[in-house]
Specification:
The chain is 36% helix and 19% strand. It is of the alpha+beta class and 142 residues long. Helix 1 packs antiparallel against helix 2 and helix 2 runs antiparallel to helix 3.
């Protein structure tokens, strides 16, 4: 009998339906994962099917926060995977604020969002805490 296998995703709420590309200006890194690519020239591609949990903390999933949360979550994932050095957390946090302002968020609210991830986002960016995918097969292997 053939088996069927699927990947159990964790607490994610959103999934990209097409690739998203952004020029981060973060040069000197070359990272390739199944869902993310960061080129030496600073361009990051978040691939279609990438899943993320949207804005975290005491906030709402508003249009002005969604793109920023996507890019921020992708960068934090690279930090957890130790594909970026820990010093890049500050870059990710500031970029979140910039993208939110670009997408129409009030500057004061964007500053509050930035302060939240600056002070309370450390555990989410901590190297070595990336949860591995769980592959489940039915029927289970014996």
């Amino acid at each position: 009998m053939d088996k069927s296998c699927y990947r159990k995703i964790h607490r994610y709420k959103y999934q990209l339906v097409q690739d998203y590309e952004i020029d981060l200006g973060l040069t000197g890194f070359s990272v390739e994962t199944p869902y993310l690519r960061l080129n030496q020239d600073g361009k990051m591609t978040v691939r279609a099917t990438y899943a993320w949990d949207g804005p975290s903390g005491p906030t709402f999933d508003t249009p002005s926060l969604m793109r920023g949360s996507l890019v921020h979550d992708a960068l934090y994932q690279l930090l957890r995977m130790e594909q970026l050095p820990t010093e890049q957390k500050e870059f990710a946090d500031k970029l979140l604020r910039e993208i939110c302002i670009e997408d129409g968020m009030n500057r004061l609210i964007a500053w509050i969002v930035y302060q939240g991830v600056k002070w309370f986002g450390g555990a989410s960016a901590q190297a070595g805490t990336e949860r591995p995918d769980r592959i489940i097969c039915v029927p289970p292997e014996k």
